[in-house]
Amino acid sequence: MPISSPSALRNAVRIEAIVSLIPVGRVASYGQVADLAGLPGRARLVGKVLRQTDKRLPWHRVVSTTGTISLPKGSAGFTEQVGRLQTEGVVVIGGRIKMKEWQWQPDLTELLFTLPF
């Protein structure tokens, strides 16, 4: 289902901008992406946008707030996400990442001068 309304498109652009900033070897939670995009409480929207976008975003760097990979364990997507994260050096054990070690903590200057909104 494509993004249809102007506000939905604006939100998608914000989410995509944040996801594109997550550096190699780091992860962010769906809620963190939503907050940084100016959409607090819209973590599910982040997942929806990532499922619908055709852009080459580092979607694999977005996980649940507990560090759990949200895709069904054993699915092709789960395996791909784990593989991509491990290739970047992120330690994944049992489908989970230690957020204290791997969570992206952007600095304010980076956000202020990088984001288009």
Number of helices: 6
CATH architecture: Orthogonal Bundle
Number of domains: 1
Element-level helix/strand string: HEHHEHHH
State which percent range the strand residues make up.
under 5%
Overall pLDDT metric:
93
The overall strand count is 2
- Rg, rounded, reads 14 Å
* Largest sheet composition: 2 strands, parallel
> Reading side by side through the largest sheet, how are the strands ordered?
1-2
- Structural class based on helices, strands and sheet pairing: mainly alpha
Classify the helix fraction into a percent range.
40-55%
Q: What is the C-level CATH assignment?
A: Mainly Alpha
Q: What's the CATH topology label?
A: Arc Repressor Mutant, subunit A
Corresponding CATH superfamily: Winged helix-like DNA-binding domain superfamily/Winged helix DNA-binding domain
**End-to-end distance, in Å?**
25 Å
| pLDDT < 50 runs, ≥5 residues | none
Domain Methylated-DNA-[protein]-cysteine S-methyltransferase DNA binding: 15-90
Keywords: DNA damage, Methyltransferase, Transferase
InterPro entries: ATL_DNA_repair, MethylDNA_cys_MeTrfase_DNA-bd, MethylDNA_cys_MeTrfase_DNAb, WH-like_DNA-bd_sf
GO molecular function: methyltransferase activity
